[in-house]
């Protein structure tokens, strides 16, 4: 029997929707802190967004992630689970054999590589939409860089217009701006995402049971999310800056140039900007995602195993 299963893709899609709904407001705060200036603390950033843009400001750029991150998450969970089963099937002769730490690491890294292909454009559009406020654009445009025909009006009318504009102005490579930084973030990042989650779930399984309960899944997912997003923050800062760059002009030539310029202008602390909100956001969004994923997966498989009346 083949180890490949579609169930994980479907459950991952549902988990992705749950994570966006829960985590997007704090994701907006994180992006503003990492890319913008003048926000100061996390609390001050939240208050400034609310005063200037009301509650709707926290949900800028959400429609595109809501549709696309569901698909992205479907790929992430589907690839990870099927890669893990493939390794177990060929290494131990049984797709359901408990994976070793090295097996989980290989499956996690493979997921990181593949996820960037879909997640790069999604993140790019989301960040461009989150950052296009009048005050933010003014911060990043100096007299020497102000382009001809510059307008205070929003650059993008929505996700589709944003994507088409990037393709027209920067070509196909433009939609993968920041992809190298994303690889450096996600390949190790998924290792400290899936591995802690799996071990925490296994540790919390009660005696006489084969699976963790809903609370344990929620807690394990939240802890894994906080750990992975916390450790990924430095490269997430670089990725966000590269992707936000280029709305009117380009400041960075690549990953190394972005790191050097950011360090020279703002010091080492810039790479930890948004660390608190990353860790705080990582807990509820990942907890919701893993819980929705596990409950959906169990419901789907229960439906497959129940006999027809």
Automatic annotation (TrEMBL):
Keywords attached to this entry: Membrane, Mitochondrion, Mitochondrion inner membrane, Repeat, Transmembrane, Transmembrane helix, Transport
UniProt-annotated location(s): Mitochondrion inner membrane
A cellular-component GO term for this protein: mitochondrial inner membrane
Domain of life: Eukaryota
Keyword Glycosyltransferase: no
Similarity section: Belongs to the mitochondrial carrier (TC 2.A.29) family.
Protein name: Solute carrier family 25 member 48
């Amino acid at each position: 029997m083949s180890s490949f299963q579609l169930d994980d893709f479907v459950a991952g899609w549902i988990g992705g929707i749950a994570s966006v709904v829960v985590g997007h407001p704090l994701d907006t705060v994180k992006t503003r802190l990492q890319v913008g200036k003048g926000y100061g603390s996390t609390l001050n950033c939240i208050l400034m967004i609310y005063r200037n843009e009301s509650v709707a400001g926290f949900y800028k750029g959400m429609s595109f992630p809501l549709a696309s991150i569901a698909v992205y998450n479907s790929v992430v969970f589907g690839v990870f689970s099927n890669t893990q089963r493939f390794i177990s099937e060929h290494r131990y002769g049984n797709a359901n054999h408990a994976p070793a730490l090295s097996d989980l690491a290989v499956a996690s890294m493979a997921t990181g590589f593949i996820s960037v292909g879909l997640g790069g454009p999604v993140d790019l559009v989301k960040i461009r939409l989150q950052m296009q406020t009048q005050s933010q654009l003014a911060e990043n445009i100096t007299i020497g860089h102000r382009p001809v025909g510059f307008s205070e009006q929003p650059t993008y009318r929505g996700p589709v217009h944003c994507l088409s504009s990037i393709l027209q102005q920067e070509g196909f490579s433009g939609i993968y701006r920041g992809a190298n930084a994303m690889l450096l973030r996600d390949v190790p990042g998924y290792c400290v995402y899936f591995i802690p989650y799996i071990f925490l779930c296994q540790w919390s399984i009660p005696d006489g049971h084969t699976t963790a309960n809903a609370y344990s899944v929620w807690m394990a997912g939240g802890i894994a999310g906080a750990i992975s997003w916390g450790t990924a923050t430095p490269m997430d800062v670089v990725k966000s800056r590269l992707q936000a760059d280029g709305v009117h002009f380009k400041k960075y030539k690549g990953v190394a140039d972005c790191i050097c310029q950011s360090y020279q202008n703002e010091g080492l602390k810039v790479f930890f900007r948004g660390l608190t909100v990353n860790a705080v956001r990582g807990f509820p969004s990942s907890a919701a995602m893993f819980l929705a994923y596990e409950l959906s997966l169990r419901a789907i498989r229960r439906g497959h195993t129940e006999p027809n009346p």
